[in-house]
């Protein structure tokens, strides 16, 4: 991750290997090189982490060469990382003198990964798009089977934690904080007193309610949920010009 001071934008330079033979250790090493502290490329990094977990499920040793079909799949992914070099993300995420500042948060989960993404919107007189990606975070789903509703709840907790971290760091007057998930089950749990819920759900709901007690949770369709991209992972060529990821859904 680099800063271009002429364009005042973040850029990414990815160093990749030209080899066609890989081990699980090589895969981990390449993932570690994807330095992205703000989570701006998380859909791509999620794709790589999901691939690594698949190798773990196949019980491939760290020094063992990957089977040819799997190695080819990883080689194609590595080659596609060149598209990341085309991505330019504005450092400035607020318009001058906005009438209102709205912080949008979205969470989502799949059987492979879960995560959260946050945007900042400047409400201005102009009709220009004034919503920009601020940060995101994801985690691969546990190898031990967990139900989708519980993973969705884990994603909501991740969003609640990221929300608190962002609000503490920004030191801005935020007029609205909107939190959204496409899971109706997770929403119903969040609206329930924790002591009425089973232990796993109870613990997470209690944390979410404490972290977001001042804010409103609501439902969003999966189609309009940008966090869906990070919970499933996408190839770099599909992220480079993906306005849905970098600017969020229409209001």
From TrEMBL:
SUPFAM superfamilies: DNA/RNA polymerases. InterPro entries: DNA/RNA_pol_sf, Retrotrans_Pao. Transmembrane segments: none annotated. GO terms for biological process: DNA biosynthetic process. PANTHER family: PHD-TYPE DOMAIN-CONTAINING PROTEIN (PTHR47331), RIBONUCLEASE H (PTHR47331:SF5). This is Uncharacterized protein. It comes from Araneus ventricosus.
């Amino acid at each position: 991750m680099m800063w271009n001071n002429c364009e005042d934008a973040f850029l990414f330079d990815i160093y990749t290997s030209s080899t066609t033979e890989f081990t699980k250790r090589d895969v981990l090493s390449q993932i570690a090189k994807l330095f992205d502290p703000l989570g701006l490329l998380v859909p791509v990094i999620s794709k790589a982490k999901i691939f690594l977990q698949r190798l773990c499920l196949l019980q491939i040793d760290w020094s063992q060469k990957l089977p040819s079909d799997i190695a080819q799949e990883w080689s194609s992914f590595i080659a596609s990382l060149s598209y990341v070099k085309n991505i330019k993300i504005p450092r400035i995420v607020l318009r001058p003198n906005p009438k209102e500042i709205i912080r949008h948060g979205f969470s989502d989960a799949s059987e492979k990964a879960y995560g959260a993404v946050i945007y900042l919107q400047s409400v201005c007189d102009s009709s220009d798009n004034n919503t920009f990606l601020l940060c995101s975070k994801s985690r691969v789903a546990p190898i031990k089977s967990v139900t989708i509703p519980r993973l969705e709840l884990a994603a909501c907790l991740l969003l609640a934690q990221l929300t608190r971290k962002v609000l503490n760091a920004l030191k801005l007057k935020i007029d609205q904080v909107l939190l959204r998930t496409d899971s109706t089950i997770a929403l119903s749990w969040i609206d329930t007193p924790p002591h009425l819920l089973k232990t796993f759900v109870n613990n997470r709901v209690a944390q979410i309610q404490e972290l977001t007690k001042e804010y409103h949770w609501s439902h969003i369709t999966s189609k309009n949920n940008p966090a869906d991209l990070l919970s499933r992972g996408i190839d770099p060529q599909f992220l480079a010009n993906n306005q849905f990821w970098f600017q969020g859904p229409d209001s």
